[in-house]
Design brief:
Blueprint lengths: L16 H4 L1 H5 L5 E2 L11 H11 L11 H15 L8 E4 L2 H12 L5 E4 L6 H7 L4 E4 L3 E2 L5 E2 L2 H7 L4 E7 L11 H14 L2 E5 L20 H4 L2 E5 L13 E4 L3 H13 L7 H13 L1 H25 L13 E5 L7 H12 L1 E2 L1 E2 L10 E5 L4 H11 L4
Parallel strand pairs: 1-12, 3-4, 3-7, 7-8, 8-9
Antiparallel strand pairs: 2-10, 5-6, 9-10, 11-14, 13-14
The chain binds pyridoxal-5'-phosphate.
The site of pyridoxal-5'-phosphate has 14 residues, from helix 5.
Length: about 400
C-alpha cells in the first residue's frame, strides 16, 4: 500500500463538524466521534498538491469551470462503470443536498407527493417538507439476515396522481445496500408507468465492495434515463466534502432546462475555485488511491463484524455492500432506544448517529462510520462491550 490509512490525524480545532460541533449535537465534547460521514484519512496528496499549486497564483477571482472538469467525470464513469455519459447531461451543483432541493423545486410543485424509503439519509425529509412538498414514506423491509429490501408492493400502492418523484440513495445511507439492476429496473418501470422522476443520490457510488457493482439508474435504458436524475460528487470518495462541489446528471432535456433555470435564478452556478480543481483532479488521478482505501475499508468492515460476533453478539450488523457506514442493530440487548442512546453517550462515550434520525424504523439502531484508522475502531469496539 502506498498510502497509510492507519495514521491518526488530529482534526480537533480545524472546525471539523465531526469533532468541533460534537458539543452542539451531543451536549458533550469528550466523545469518540464516529458519526458525520467524512473520513478521518488524509485527503489524497495529489489533490492537496493541485490546490497548493493554484494558490501560487495570487488572485482568486471569479472562475469558470473548464471542459476538463466535466470530462473528468465522463472518463471516470466510462472507466469505472463502463457507462457512457454525455457532456450535455451534466450540470454543476454546489453540493448534493442542495442539488436535491433544486431538483425538487424545479421539477415538482408545492403540495406534490415525493416518496422516500426510510431508514434513509435525514436531509431527504427536510428537502421535501422544507420545500412544502408532501413527504410519503415507503419503509424498507429488513429480512432475517439484516438485509434491507425495497417494498415494491407497498410502493406501487402509495403512488397516486399527486405523486411526482421518488428519491433514492444508491448505495443506501445508512443501511449500505447497493441497489442492483433488478431493483432499479423495477423502480424505472414504475417511473415510466406513472410518469415519475427518480432522483438518485449516488454520492456513495464509489464505495462498493466486491462482488457488488454500482448500477447508475440512467444506464439501464434510454426510457428509464428520461425519468431519472443522478446527483453525485467525488466529495465522499476523496474526502473533500468541505469543498461543496457536485454534479447533476440529467438526460431529460426538459428536466435539465428547469434545473438550469432554478440554478440560474438562485445564482448558485458559480461554485468555487478549489472545489472545481479538487473535483477534476480527484477523477483524473484518483483510481489507485480509491482502490487502496476500498481495501482498507473492507478490512475495517470485517474487523467490526468479527469483533461484534466474538465479543458483543447482542449487536448485530450486516456487512454493507457499499458506503463506509455500518448500521448497528441493538435490538437484542433488550434495552429501549433511549437507554441505548443514553449509555452510548454517557458510558461508552461514543458519538454515533441516532438511528431514529433516519426515520422511525431506525429504532434501536445506530450508525457507525468506519472510515477511520483501525486503532480508533478498536478503541470504540472495546467501549461497546458494555452492551455484551
Ligand atoms: C446520501 C448522502 N447524500 C448527500 C450527502 C451530503 O452531500 P453534500 O455535502 O454534497 O450536500 C451525504 C453526506 O453524508 C449523504 O450521505
Amino acid at each position: 500500500m502506498k498510502y497509510n490509512f492507519d495514521q491518526i490525524i488530529d482534526r480537533r480545532g480545524t472546525n471539523a463538524i465531526k469533532y468541533d460541533k460534537m458539543d452542539f449535537f451531543f451536549g458533550r465534547h469528550d466523545l469518540q466521534p464516529l458519526w458525520v460521514a467524512d473520513m478521518d484519512f488524509a485527503t489524497p496528496d495529489f489533490i492537496l498538491e493541485a490546490l497548493k499549486q493554484r494558490l501560487s497564483h495570487p488572485i482568486l477571482g471569479y472562475t469558470k469551470r473548464p471542459q476538463s472538469f466535466y470530462k473528468s467525470y465522463i472518463d471516470w464513469a466510462k472507466k469505472r462503470y463502463q457507462w457512457s455519459v454525455s457532456n450535455k447531461w451534466l450540470e454543476f451543483s454546489p453540493g448534493v443536498v442542495g442539488a436535491l432541493s433544486i431538483a425538487i423545486l424545479s421539477l415538482t410543485n408545492e403540495g406534490d407527493k415525493i416518496i422516500i424509503q426510510p431508514p434513509v439519509y435525514h436531509p431527504f425529509f427536510d428537502a421535501i417538507t422544507g420545500n412544502k412538498r408532501q413527504l410519503v414514506k415507503n419503509p424498507l423491509l429488513k429480512d432475517k439476515n439484516g438485509i434491507y429490501q425495497m417494498d415494491f408492493n407497498a410502493l406501487e400502492k402509495l403512488i397516486d396522481s399527486q405523486t411526482k418523484m421518488i428519491i433514492i440513495s444508491n448505495p443506501h445511507n445508512p443501511v449500505g445496500r447497493v441497489w442492483n439492476k433488478t431493483d432499479l429496473e423495477k423502480l424505472g418501470k414504475l417511473a415510466i408507468k406513472y410518469n415519475l422522476i427518480i432522483l438518485s443520490d449516488d454520492i456513495h457510488a464509489d464505495f462498493i465492495y466486491s462482488p457488488h457493482q454500482y448500477t447508475p439508474i440512467i444506464k439501464l435504458s434510454k426510457e428509464i434515463a428520461q425519468h431519472s436524475i443522478i446527483i453525485t460528487s467525488p466529495s465522499k470518495t476523496f474526502n473533500i466534502a468541505g469543498l461543496s462541489t457536485s454534479i447533476a446528471i440529467i438526460p431529460n432535456e426538459d428536466y435539465r432546462k428547469n434545473f438550469q433555470k432554478k440554478m440560474h435564478d438562485m445564482h448558485l452556478f458559480l461554485g468555487n475555485i478549489f472545489g472545481n480543481i479538487a473535483f477534476e483532479t480527484a477523477y483524473q488521478k484518483g483510481e489507485n488511491w480509491l482502490n487502496e482505501v476500498l481495501k482498507y475499508l473492507k478490512e475495517n468492515i470485517n474487523f467490526v463484524q468479527d469483533y461484534l460476533n466474538t465479543h458483543i453478539p447482542t449487536i448485530k450488523t450486516a456487512a454493507p455492500e457499499g458506503t463506509f457506514l455500518m448500521w448497528l442493530d441493538f435490538s437484542e440487548t433488550g434495552l429501549s432506544h433511549n437507554v441505548i442512546k443514553e449509555r452510548l453517550l454517557n458510558e461508552a462515550k461514543l458519538a454515533l448517529n441516532d438511528g431514529k434520525s433516519f426515520g422511525d424504523n431506525g429504532d434501536k439502531h445506530f450508525r457507525l462510520n468506519i472510515a477511520t484508522p483501525r486503532k480508533n475502531l478498536e478503541t470504540a469496539l472495546e467501549k461497546l462491550k458494555i452492551f455484551a
